[in-house]
Amino acid sequence: MQGQNQQQAYDRGITIFSPDGRLYQVEYAREAVKRGTASIGVRTTDGVVLAVDKRIRSPLMERDSVEKIHKADDHIGIASAGHVADARQLIDFARRRTQINELRYGEPIAVETLTKEVTDYIQQYTQVGGARPFGVALIIAGIADGEPKLYETDPSGTPYEWKALAVGSDRGDIREYLEEHYDEDADLDGGIELALEGLASVNDDGLTPEGIGMATIDTETESFHTLSEDEKLEYLETFDLLASDDEADEADEDDEE
């Protein structure tokens, strides 16, 4: 009984390490990330790609209201998985930091700099009593000095740089697919294909333009671009990943956020 009471104390205390060096609330926050729908980032030779699963709970819900890809600055985009409200707070923080950097230094913020400022902010919530960690993981993608950059933020406040990654549900399965098929010499279209195939690898019914979100940032323009429904449809047809009408109807009936 005493051991159980001690365990519960470590569970409740965000600022208290357990005897084996664990912060349970941070680990629980990671579990919250796994409950969110999948988001994927892919770095290519001429840009970065963000792709997300936008499944909804009800056919009555407006799909446009499900926001998982955000523009942080002209050259930076962010995808999220986990608690949407937590993601919104971090996105707003990131946007403020980009504007402060522009006003203070007269130049766009570097992708790595923004990532570390966001993770420093996240980390503060693992040391302050009366607060909880952010239950969300972010994929921060952009262009810095002509080079594509791709980072992940963890609920612990740790940044990681990746060539390709997935966060959210089915992360393990998607990452295995990315590791097997990633090509460092792929162009932007190749990155789009890999991201879509990664999402399709855990969706047996295929994909629909309405059920996914996509954005790219290329090295030529260094501009964030959200793919339209027609663009997504064209890519899905080109890569033979488009769900049939019957499969799409069944997927809509089963959709859950």
UniProtKB/TrEMBL annotation:
Residues 10-32 form the Proteasome alpha-type subunits domain. GO terms for biological process: proteasomal protein catabolic process. It is found in: Cytoplasm. Keywords: Cytoplasm, Hydrolase, Proteasome. It comes from the Archaea. The formation of the proteasomal ATPase PAN-20S proteasome complex, via the docking of the C-termini of PAN into the intersubunit pockets in the alpha-rings, triggers opening of the gate for substrate entry. Interconversion between the open-gate and close-gate conformations leads to a dynamic regulation of the 20S proteasome proteolysis activity. GO terms for cellular component: cytoplasm; proteasome core complex, alpha-subunit complex. Pfam families: Proteasome (PF00227), Proteasome_A_N (PF10584). GO terms for molecular function: endopeptidase activity. The keyword Coiled coil does not apply. The keyword Transport does not apply. InterPro entries: Ntn_hydrolases_N, Proteasome_alpha, Proteasome_alpha-type, Proteasome_asu_arc, Proteasome_asu_N, Proteasome_sua/b. PANTHER family: PROTEASOME SUBUNIT ALPHA/BETA. Belongs to the peptidase T1A family. The 20S proteasome core is composed of 14 alpha and 14 beta subunits that assemble into four stacked heptameric rings, resulting in a barrel-shaped structure. The two inner rings, each composed of seven catalytic beta subunits, are sandwiched by two outer rings, each composed of seven alpha subunits. H.volcanii produces at least 2 types of 20S proteasomes: an alpha1-beta proteasome and a proteasome containing all three subunits (alpha1, alpha2, and beta) that appears to be asymmetrical with homo-oligomeric alpha1 and alpha2 rings positioned on separate ends. Component of the proteasome core, a large protease complex with broad specificity involved in protein degradation. This is Proteasome subunit alpha. It comes from Halovenus rubra. The gene is psmA.
